Amino acid sequence: MRKLSKLILTLITITAFTACGDSEKKEKDDVKIGDYSQEAPKKEAAATSSKDMVDMSNKGIGPVKSVTLNAEIDKALAVKGETVFKNMCTACHKTDKKFIGPAIVGITERRSPEWIMNMILNPEEMIANDPIAKQLLLESNMAVMANQNLTEEEARSILEYFRTLDEEI
């Protein structure tokens, strides 16, 4: 009885393995080794990081068309902006380093006040249509900036807070 069980088990195993095979013979793959006598095609230079890109002429897309900044920073407005920033933005942004979104330090030296406020107020359209915002999206691994539904006054206060950060550099 044991010999019969072993024989049946062996036949089932052999049948299973042979049934899984392909009945058609496959042609041998032609492996070609590259011709190293030719120069490799030149790769295009990588896109410049948005952190390195300075564009003060781009006003962005959104409700803010013009912002007049005083030479002196409005400390009271900056304090309000810091509060709004800490409540609404720090889930994704750190002031001094990249987190989910880009670092904030130096932003007022690279972007126009209008661009900054429009990015805060209108991130969806900025990401869809503004070349700098598109680059930022790529650099942040496609993490889309959420619209926090802030007012222009709140965005202006955040801008003033950003100015204090850049003043410290």
From TrEMBL:
Name of the protein this chain belongs to: Cytochrome c
Annotated keywords: Heme, Iron, Metal-binding, Signal
Residues annotated as domain Cytochrome c: 76-166
Residue span of region Disordered: 28-51
GO molecular function: electron transfer activity; heme binding; metal ion binding
Pfam families: Cytochrom_C
InterPro entries: Cyt_c-like_dom, Cyt_c-like_dom_sf
Signal peptide: 1-21
Gene3D superfamilies (UniProt xref): Cytochrome c-like domain (1.10.760.10)
